[in-house]
Every structure is written in structure tokens, then in C-alpha cells.
């Protein structure tokens, strides 16, 4: 009897130990699965974070406008930049708020970049579309914008450079004041020298041509000798925007597009109107300049 009791007890202990072993194995498997799931989740979260971190506020500001207007970054990058009140696009920045204005229509769109999303405020028609008289607002997540415009980053960065969005409006407003010793004709000669090279300013006795200053049909000033080297320009305070024909290929001049450039009067004066011989050349040409 005792022998049977001992055998039964032994079997009971063996079964108990086996059950505990299976439970421990099951617990380890479950724990391993949880850890794996957490690892995958963490990896996915990190990947999403990296996607949104690839872009800065300037880029998200441009993306917000692209999303609302349903246009491409390439098209915006090739849009004429408005200086003053001339026709074209004007983009300004104040902190994390970007204002997109279309002239002469007068409509504007404000894009506000927040921590996790971008809010776009615009003029809305009664049917909910843009460019109306009512105030409209839409909010896009940064994930949504990053996924949609990741392949347009290069063109978005071109927009940022073209419209000086790397500078805050306060910095731009505090730029060096325009020189006060340059008259209109002198400014025109300096701009021409910047566009075509100082060595194109010919004051030799063999040169009978006079540089001309006129106003184009689009309202821009034009300076030159009536050739494909003529330069159109506009001045806003110290800032100068000028346009030249694109001579980068063999396209005939009458088919070439205008290329936009920017500089400042301060830079022009420093580069072309500091040395005595430079000033003398510029003064001779400006004194003999013809105005239309």
C-alpha cells in the first residue's frame, strides 16, 4: 500500500512539474511575441517620424499652399515673382506664417505651420471653393503633406530660394538702406553692368552708341542699346529684380524666355561704383544716356 502511494505521489509531482514547464514556455513565447510587436510598432513609429522630419517649416509652408491650390511645385517655382505691385506672385514670411499673394488680383492665402499640422486660411466662395469673399480654413497633417510632396522637394526648395523664405520678414526689413548717392541713370548703368559684365561698358572714342533708358509695356524699366543684351528691372527700396534673355542655348533671341535675377543697390555700388576708374566709366555713360 505504501509502495503504491509513493508511486502515485511521484507521478503527481512529475505531472505538476511538466504543467509548470509548459506554462513557463507559453509565458516566454507570449512575452517574446509582445516584445516583437512592440519592436515592430516602435520601428514603424520611428519611420513615420523620420518622414516628417525630412522637411522644415519653409517647406511645409509651401506644401500647404500647393495642397490648397492643387498646383505643382515646379509651376510655382516658375511663376513670376511680384515686386511692388506688378503682376505675379508675392510670398512673405513672418515667423511660422507664410502669406501667398497673387497680384493684381489682390487675393491672399495665409499658411500657418504648427507642430503636427499646417493650417491654411484663404478667401472662399459660397460653394466652398477658393478665391471668394468669405473666410475659409483647412488643416492638413504633416504626414499627409510629407507623403504627397516628398518627390517635389527639389522644386519646393527652388520656391524657397526664389522668394527669400530663408530670411524672416524682420530680417529683410532691417536690410541695409539703399544708397542715396545714386540717381536713376546711374542705377540703370550698374544694373546693366551686373547683367552683362562691366567690360561691356564701352566709353572709347570708337563707340558712338548711347545707352537708352525706357519703360517696357509691362511697366518695368529697360536699359541697354536696343539689342538682346537689354535688361528689364524693377527697384524696391534697396532690392533690385532684373530680367535678361536666356542665352543658355541656340534658341533665336525673339523666342528666348526672360530669366529673373535679384541683387541690391548696395551690392551694385560696392561691385561697380567704388574704384575711381569704375565711377568715371559709369558717370560718362549715364551722362550721355538717352531717355525715352
TrEMBL record:
Signal peptide: 1-18
Biased composition regions of type Low complexity, renumbered to the chain: 23-50
Gene3D superfamilies: 3.30.1460.60
Region described as Disordered: 23-54
Coiled coil: none
Short name of one Pfam family: Lreu_0056_like
Chain ranges of the Lreu-0056-like domain: 231-287
Keywords annotated in UniProt: Signal
Official protein name in the record: Lreu-0056-like domain-containing protein
Organismal lineage: Bacteria, Bacillati, Bacillota, Bacilli, Lactobacillales
